[in-house]
Design a protein that fits this description.
heterodimer, A: Aspartate Aminotransferase, domain 2, 2 domains, seven-stranded mixed beta sheet, four-stranded mixed beta sheet, B: mainly alpha, about 0% strand, binds pyridoxal-5'-phosphate
Chain lengths: ~400, ~80
């Protein structure tokens, strides 16, 4: 039957309903600030957003959005290729190119469209794409659509990438290598210095998705490539406005003038309406703010270390280094759901991540910090975990 | 240069440790339906083949490959 393949999900939903938890699509009834809301009737600290710079509620961004809605209307009702390119979109493209100090930029309606669109369009039949095994779903979706030959390299493993580039022989020079800056689920940073070195040795093109690292890493917030000092080796940078910039939309920037021709070959750019002017206006304002207020970057890292050190001190299985994404890895699904529910009851709203969204067969309690979290909020999150631990929720589950 | 039989022979030996149901392996044995390999195990198995022969097996060939024989044939095709 057509619906058979959805049965596992239906069963899982039934199980969650029986246990009275709504980790997927829990409804936020009220937003009190960029770090607090009322979710499913409870006042909670938002500890699973991607609001790294804390800008989703910035009065300057809100005012810019309001003014743009009044001036340009609520939507463009058309594609960038047709009637949907307003002066706002063009201005943002210039500003994001300037921010990256490159000549060319494309603004997309979502980050997913940016990544999926670039990955599906750059390489085609007969080309080769090498992607990190833990790549985001938008990358997997894109490369699948490309009809190129697809090769996975081991997560964050430049030696494995090099081995695979060597095996390609002459084809390596045309290959598209894909990596992310910060990986969204575990918060680990790609070894871009080493990956760029592989590209220099074997040739090819490098695309980096800085979705979670833009704003967060690098001297001026351009991301992991800037932090690693290898921006000159990156052919295409893609990213999103939905995380550090607190709005929605995506971008691709490049030093290659060919990007202007590529633009009109990307279906995810052509066959979808452009962003509302209000969204573009708040994004422009947010970009100005992250440039003029670099202290936000320091703040998000202070919060990251505070949370990471706190959870680590409790003996919880967090990743190898601190990062604005701090994930607690769990083996048992049922235990993870219990923990998520208990955290929610303690007023801490984190992400529950299940395979295949998590990179292994493990389950995750994914916490993420914002520059806007206060020390007290971070400490509340840590103490909620401490209570869970005291209640024995992190002990290995008994076999049924 | 590696011929079909040689690939086949390697596939049988490489699958031995993953053949938990201990079924007889033939060219028509289905990797997922018969042996019960999970998607992760398929990836591990593919990597074993790649490393052994120092070749590349792109992911996009997998939807067309179900049995051990089909895989040996495909790998042979990719590395003439
Ligand atoms: C690596 C990566 N790329 C792309 C996206 C898609 O971005 P958006 O949610 O803004 O569409 C995300 C996040 O969801 C991501 O983590």
């Amino acid at each position: 039957m057509l619906f058979d393949k959805f049965q596992t999900m239906a069963d899982f939903q039934a199980e969650l309903a029986e246990r009275e938890v709504v980790p997927f699509g829990a409804v936020t009834e009220q937003i009190l600030s960029s770090t607090e809301g009322v979710v499913e009737g409870r006042r909670v600290i938002l500890a699973g957003t991607n609001n790294y710079m804390g800008l989703s509620f910035d009065p300057r961004c809100i005012a810019a959005a309001q003014a743009a809605a009044a001036r340009w209307g609520t939507g463009t009702t058309g594609s960038r290729l047709a009637n949907g390119s307003f002066a706002e979109h063009e201005a943002l493209e210039q500003e994001i190119a300037q921010f990256y100090a490159v000549g060319h930029a494309i603004v997309f309606s979502t980050g997913y469209a940016a990544t999926m669109g670039m990955c599906s369009t750059l390489a085609g039949p007969g080309d080769v794409i090498l992607l990190d095994a833990d790549s985001h779903a938008s990358i997997y979706a894109g490369v699948k659509l490309s009809d190129a030959d697809i090769i996975r390299y081991k997560h964050n493993d430049p030696d494995d990438l090099a081995k695979r580039m060597r095996r390609l022989g002459d084809r390596a020079g045309q290959a598209l290598i894909i990596a992310e800056g910060i990986y969204s689920m575990l918060g680990d940073v790609a070894p871009l210095k080493e990956i760029a070195a592989v590209k220099r040795e074997y040739g090819g093109y490098l695309l980096v998705d800085e979705a979670h690292s833009m704003g967060v890493l690098g001297d001026t917030g351009r991301g992991a490539a800037q932090a690693a000092g290898v921006e000159a080796d990156v052919d295409f940078t893609v990213g999103t406005f939905s995380k550090s910039l607190g709005s929605i939309g995506g971008y691709c920037v490049s030093q290659h003038p060919e990007l202007e021709a590529i633009r009109f070959c990307i279906k995810a750019y052509i066959f979808t309406a452009s962003s509302s002017p209000s969204i573009i206006a708040s994004t422009r304002e947010a970009l100005r703010i992250i440039v003029s207020e670099p202290e936000r970057r320091r703040r998000v890292w202070d919060n990251a270390s505070r949370l990471y050190d706190g959870l680590k001190a409790l003996g919880l299985p967090v990743g190898p280094t601190a990062s604005p994404v701090v994930a607690v890895e769990m083996v048992d699904r049922s235990r993870t759901i219990d923990c998520w529910k208990a955290l929610m009851e303690a007023g801490v709203y984190v992400n529950l991540v299940i395979p295949p969204a998590s990179p292994s067969s493990n389950f995750l309690l994914r916490n993420s910090v914002s520059a806007a979290h206060s020390n007290e909020q971070i400490d509340t999150i840590i103490s909620a975990y401490a209570d869970l631990k005291a209640a024995g929720l992190f002990e290995p589950a008994q076999a049924a | 240069m590696t011929d079909y039989q040689e690939y086949l022979g390697f596939l049988y030996s490489a699958l031995a440790s993953q053949n938990k149901k201990n079924i007889e392996l033939t060219e028509s044995t289905h990797l997922v339906a018969d042996i019960g390999l999970s998607s992760l195990e398929v990836m591990e198995f593919i990597e074993k083949i790649e490393d052994h022969f120092d070749i590349t097996i792109p992911l996009n060939i997998l939807p067309d490959v179900n049995t051990i024989g089909e895989l040996a044939k495909k790998v042979r095709e990719l590395n003439p």
